[in-house]
Amino acid sequence: MSSALIRLNPDTLPDTSDLGYSQISIAGPGRLAFVSGQVAIPADGGEVPASLEGQVAQVVENLGRALDALTATPQDIAQMRIYVRELDDAAMGIAMPPLTAFFQGARPSVTGIGVAALAAPDLRIEVEMVVHLPAENAT
């Protein structure tokens, strides 16, 4: 899907392009899809990986499946929110490289949020997306 998203890192805000995201994303004509927070539960309901690395890998897989269901690509992600239990530099160092790779250079607007808990005690990361569906493909 080709997106009508415009990415901005204005001079009046910190330049986050080297970190793999943009300060502002502007969506053109079309519709927005709000993807619920994806956690490390496999589609078949299997075991949640114990490690943060394993959970991030499963979350990225789930995010990709959500985009596939929308006939969208990472270029269509307008915004992403990343919720991490016990957020610190080490956790961000584990979570961000696979997520940045998932973006495939798209640089959506991203917010990282440290939380005390998620929906289940074994979950360590949850990621939600807002995806722009161009008008010609919006259903």
From TrEMBL:
Coiled coil: none annotated. CDD domains: YjgF_YER057c_UK114_family. Pfam families: Ribonuc_L-PSP. GO terms for cellular component: cytosol. GO terms for molecular function: deaminase activity. Belongs to the RutC family. This is Enamine deaminase RidA. It comes from Tateyamaria omphalii.
